[in-house]
Amino acid sequence: MTRGTLKIIFTGEDLARVRIASRVDELWEMAMSLHVLQRPGGGQDMAAWRRRARADLSGSGLLRPVRETLVPLMPIKAYFPDFLTPYEAQAGLRNGVEVLADTPAVRVRHEIDRLRRHVSLPAALDGLARGHRRALRHLAHLAGRYCEVAFDPHRATMERALGRERARLTRLLTDQGVDAMLSALTPSTRWRPPVLETDYAPGRYEIHLGGRGLTLIPSYFCRCTPVALADPSLPPVLIFPAPRRAPEPGPGDPLPDLLGANRARILRCVAATTGCTTSELARRTGTSLSSASAHAQVLHRAGLIASTRHANMVIHQLTHLGAGLLTGRTPS
User: Is 255-327 assigned to CATH 2.70.98.90?
Assistant: First the structure.
């Protein structure tokens, strides 16, 4: 499937209104995790979560309702309804569920009709498609229960991963400014002022912020390209995958034989720090600045890391190919 592009067009006022979500947005994680639940792959951590989530959902009687209600509403396609991930969920799951339950019927009908252009929906969702309040309340309750059951055993891991990414972005924003932060967002995004461009679902999309700013929401379960809301009139958000930590080397680790000990250490450091500068690589690996720079250049040319220059600073991030090498799996 050919990927498309999303272009987000900033004004000077928008750059001053970029913010980083301060907590886990569980309804966005619900949407992204349902995609993980529907398809294989994603690495050992996602495979382990998938097994545990299915067992826990089955044990609490939720697996069938999730498959019959939530999964059809969030297909792995170019679109799923915006009302399922309200902006207010950034204030907490309970707040998000309440807003979801109070979605105006006319909006529910409109977005369900749009979803039907992409997929066929089961008859069990007819009440929701008509905007029936009882069906919407049932959906909101199910969404809340899904988040509680599917995420609770994994919540500490999610919080740590997203906390690291928020700290990384905040550090860049504080030390180097918004340009540096947007330049180092993910390997699939390109910051060419005043446009932030990213790989996206098939098609070409543009969002003109028009002074409203942009909320950046790192996601644990978002595993491919960033995601945005389909309705350009809603508060603009960009959901993007938080980098994963590289696994620790085990006995007989072949990576040093393949890359050399220092280069393997550099690659693991980039993965473990979820993005860092060349001077940080040198400090963390105990190598000289020139040596760290040379190793990073080789890894960049090999496609294992993405290196983005901003002024006199270069920021390195793990690519999907690099993550696949570390995990021993072929990246999708």
Answer: no
